[in-house]
Design brief:
It is built from three helices and five strands; from the N terminus they run αβββαβαβ. It is α/β, with parallel strands linked by helices. Strands 3-2-1-4-5 form a five-stranded mixed β-sheet. Strand 4, helix 3 and strand 5 form a beta-alpha-beta unit.
């Protein structure tokens, strides 16, 4: 056993291994060869100039309330059954069409709310929602 001697296999490499660098360079060369003709052969198109205003037209919300006696209120204005049908048809013709929010008193007969929904559907109202209050947590 000889301590302090080096074999020929333990020598330090004095040269840089350039093989990985050549591989990376070849990949980059191929990428440039493929992309340059695409950029040069692009079709020149003179696009028209247009200005547009963003559409901020949010549909209005119509609140239909049914009180305990079964009377209808269109945005807090009392109306009868025939007046309600006229108001619903007028609202259905608006663009954008308003959303109908129905709120019914808990003491009213369901028939009155169902009639209002049927009238709204026949008038052509597409968006109908119900207003309720969340249950009280004990």
């Amino acid at each position: 056993m000889a301590f302090g001697t080096q074999d020929d296999t333990d020598e330090v490499m004095n040269e840089i291994n350039v093989t990985p660098m050549v591989d990376v360079m070849l990949v980059l060369l191929i990428i440039f060869i493929i992309t340059v003709p695409v950029m040069k052969n692009a079709v020149k198109v003179d696009l028209p100039r247009a200005t547009s205003q963003p559409l901020d037209a949010k549909p209005e919300t119509v609140r239909l309330s049914v009180d305990a006696q079964g009377d209808y209120f269109w945005n807090e204005t009392r109306t009868d059954d025939k007046g309600l049908i006229v108001l619903l048809r007028t609202a259905a013709l608006k663009t954008p069409q308003p959303e109908l929010h129905i709120s019914g008193d808990k003491a009213v007969r369901y028939e009155r709310v169902a009639l209002a929904m049927a009238d709204a559907q026949q008038a052509g109202i597409k968006k109908i929602g119900f207003i309720t209050e969340p249950a009280q947590q004990p």
